[in-house]
Design a protein that fits this description.
Layout: E1 2-5, E2 9-14, H1 37-40, E3 46-52, H2 59-63, E4 70-72, H3 76-82, E5 87-91, H4 96-101, E6 123-127, H5 131-142, E7 143-145, E8 151-153, H6 159-169, H7 173-176, E9 181-182, E10 185-186, E11 190-195, E12 200-206, H8 208-211, H9 224-248, H10 263-279, H11 285-298, H12 304-308, H13 317-341
Antiparallel strand pairs: 1-2, 2-12, 3-5, 3-6, 4-5, 6-11, 7-8, 9-10, 11-12
Helix pairs in contact: 9-10, 10-11, 11-13
Length: 344
């Protein structure tokens, strides 16, 4: 196990965690992958999982199969109306079946609704407290007021976002402490995420230093910090998507040698180009995608003169989509022309 010490959180990672298969015909079936048995068999702590219903198709078909106690993290007045997109808190010590499903990988095209490992759902957590006490603790995160005093639904239970959020909060203990501590008591011992793509099981545990920030916790509102978190995560997903699009859909125009085959270098370039595209007034994801692809193929981040060359003059979505597409087409045509000139 690899352990990284940080001022407010200890982050440990177990590697090479292969998901379970259907285990047909196996006499002694595993509940979880062998290397995680010690984590999930602790007697002192209760183990739970947060699941965002909106992240799963046919969630309520799955819910009907689950035989365990759970709480919907919404107030009673709106619970019924929003239960199909709400965040749920499940008690895992009372349902080995659900725990196994969270680590079971589907087979073939038609995957049963209970094969959840490859869908990257669920934020695991351990605590000394009971289900109802933890539900009360988490409900305050579900709906936050913003600076304009309007309610915002905060979809924190997406496992990849939650991991990103805690990593970002390592340097912001006034925010981080809220996810572990309530008034005068530690509610959460640790959070864990199973990353199916990387086969990592990451655990975030509060250090003693984090407790010192409990009295200094920031007011729980959807402020600029939380908005910034959401924006950076959205940009991260967009950048990852653009790497795939460029390497797959535009492979004939993409010169990987410029980035030494290094995804990180390409990703960093895309992040920079995305930032510049926003500064230049491109608002739609489609327009920024065209701009980024053109920049990658040219080998530099384009600028406002490049946009002006195709008649970009406003940020109306339809206009910016059309003009940035024209810019990309010009770049591709130039690549084709150079290729013909050199006899390729």
């Amino acid at each position: 196990m690899e352990l990284q010490s940080v001022p407010t959180l200890d982050v440990s990672s177990k590697t090479d965690i292969e998901p379970l298969d259907f285990q047909y015909g196996v006499k002694d079936k595993l509940t979880v992958p062998v290397s995680l048995e010690s984590y999930f068999s602790q007697q002192r702590l209760n183990t739970y999982v947060l699941i965002d219903a909106a992240s799963l198709e046919r969630f309520h078909d799955l819910l009907s199969l689950i035989d365990t106690e759970y709480e919907i993290l919404l107030g009673d007045s709106i619970k019924e109306d929003y239960k199909s997109v709400a965040t749920y808190l499940f008690d895992l010590k009372r349902s080995k079946e659900l725990l196994t499903w969270l680590f079971t990988e589907g087979e073939g095209d038609k995957k049963p609704s209970w094969c959840l490992a490859d869908r990257s759902v669920g934020v695991f957590l351990q605590s000394e407290f009971e289900l109802d006490e933890l539900a009360y603790f988490f409900k305050k995160f579900t709906r936050l007021r913003d600076k304009q005093d309007k309610w915002r639904y905060f979809r924190f239970a997406d496992s990849k976002f939650f991991s990103f959020m805690l990593e970002e909060m390592m340097g912001e203990p006034e925010y981080c402490s809220r996810w572990f501590y309530s008034t005068n008591k530690q509610m959460i011992e640790n959070y864990s995420i199973y990353e199916y793509d990387t086969r990592l099981f990451k655990t975030f545990k509060a250090t003693s230093k984090l407790q010192a920030y409990q009295p200094k916790q920031k007011p729980l509102i959807f402020d600029d910090y939380y908005q910034g978190l959401s924006d950076r995560y959205t940009d991260k997903l967009f950048s990852q998507k653009m790497v795939g699009i460029i390497k797959d859909d535009f492979s004939q125009y993409y010169d990987g040698d410029n980035y030494d085959g290094n995804n990180k270098e390409l990703t960093d370039f895309i992040v920079k180009s995305n930032h510049i595209s926003r500064q230049l007034g491109l608002k739609s994801e489609q327009a920024r995608g065209y701009f980024i692809a053109a920049s990658v193929f040219v080998g530099r981040t384009l600028d406002k003169e490049d946009l002006a060359s195709v008649g970009f003059y406003a940020s109306a979505m339809e206009h910016e989509n059309r003009k940035t597409k024209k810019l990309l087409e010009q770049v591709i045509n130039n690549i084709k022309r150079r290729s013909l000139e050199h006899g390729h």
